[in-house]
Automatic annotation (TrEMBL):
Family indicated by similarity: Belongs to the LysR transcriptional regulatory family.
UniProt key word Nucleus: no
Record keywords: DNA-binding, Transcription, Transcription regulation
Name of protein: LysR family transcriptional regulator
Domain HTH lysR-type: 6-63
Keyword Membrane on entry: no
């Protein structure tokens, strides 16, 4: 089997085009002509030895081999960029203040901190794991440099939607049921204390579907919510991120429950231009999110861009 050395510039054009949804936009962002990017994509197919794209209506879609190539291209670029950042940023010192939703505290946070610490051992992170309202307040008041929060429609000056994450009905682990849809009892709902975006999404969906419900358990923390759901006290609504083994996502139709929408995941920044340390942490955060929920990832537009588009 011949040894293939993929061109990182080619891979960057490929990945950028897929994330922007347009190779013309990728060419503009990367400072290349559209014809140059087209030539790069042809080169990529030649190097891979397989078709990367297939026709889909008037446009193009990835082949199965193209999907595999995209995943590896992202990993290769991330490793390249991490190596460059580590070499160039070994002398960086100081603090970065980061805020996260509780959903990410046990899943994404350890990965994020590990990658950041390995690349920048002299930098320190001050982290806060709190609810949405507090995250946004702390970013806008300058008490956090970065915050990863669910979208509640609140616009901050420097933010971008980085993913659309599906919401799911969550019940106790396999073999147990918290509710029988054919019964006459209202659905027992386990939820976080208000205000809670996912709690409101659940009650709105149930009301539209004409399904009676009652609050069976209210918790101030995610840990309490998981315990109540695992015990069968009620059904809750969260995303697939960080589900403990004691609960599992339910198939809505099979359980007589309405379908739920997706929830935007937003990266808020305190300033238009981040310092080198915060910018590096933001890049690691985006990659960690993309690895955790690859199907939900998309290149977001800043709040400023949305208002001027």
């Amino acid at each position: 089997m011949r040894r293939v050395n993929f061109d990182l510039d080619v891979l960057r054009s490929f990945v950028t085009g897929m994330e922007l949804g347009s190779f013309a936009k990728a060419a503009d962002r990367l400072g290349r002509s559209t014809s140059a990017v087209s030539a790069q994509l042809k080169k990529l197919e030649e190097q891979a030895g397989i078709p990367i794209f297939r026709k889909a209506g008037r446009g193009l879609a990835l082949t199965e081999g193209g999907e595999t190539m995209l995943a590896y291209a992202r990993r290769l670029l991330d490793l390249n960029d991490e190596a460059a950042a580590a070499v160039q940023g070994v002398a960086l010192e100081g603090w970065v203040r980061l805020g996260l939703q509780e959903d990410f505290g046990e899943t994404l946070l350890p990965q994020m901190l590990g990658r950041f610490a390995r690349a920048h051992p002299k930098l320190r992170i001050e982290g806060r794991v709190v609810r949405n309202v507090e995250l946004i307040d702390r970013v806008t008041s300058g008490r956090l440099d970065l915050a990863l929060a669910w979208s509640d429609g609140t616009a901050t000056p420097y933010s971008e939607t980085i993913a659309e994450v599906p919401m799911r009905w969550i019940g106790p682990a396999e073999g147990r049921r918290a509710w029988e849809p054919s019964g006459r009892e209202p659905l027992p709902l386990a939820a976080l204390e208000a205000p809670c975006l996912l709690r409101k999404a659940a009650t709105d969906a149930l009301d539209r579907a004409g399904i009676p419900w009652r609050l069976a358990f209210v918790s101030p923390s995610l840990g309490g919510l998981w315990a109540a759901t695992a015990a069968g006290l009620g059904v809750t609504v969260r995303t697939p991120i960080g589900l403990p083994a004691s609960v599992h996502a339910l198939v809505a139709r099979e359980n007589g429950l309405p379908e739920l929408p997706s929830l935007g995941l937003v990266l808020h920044r305190a300033d238009r231009e981040l310092g080198p340390a915060a910018a590096r942490l933001a890049a690691i955060m985006l990659q960690t999110v993309r690895d955790a929920i690859p199907g939900a990832w998309h290149a977001g537009r800043s709040a400023e861009a949305r208002t001027t588009a």
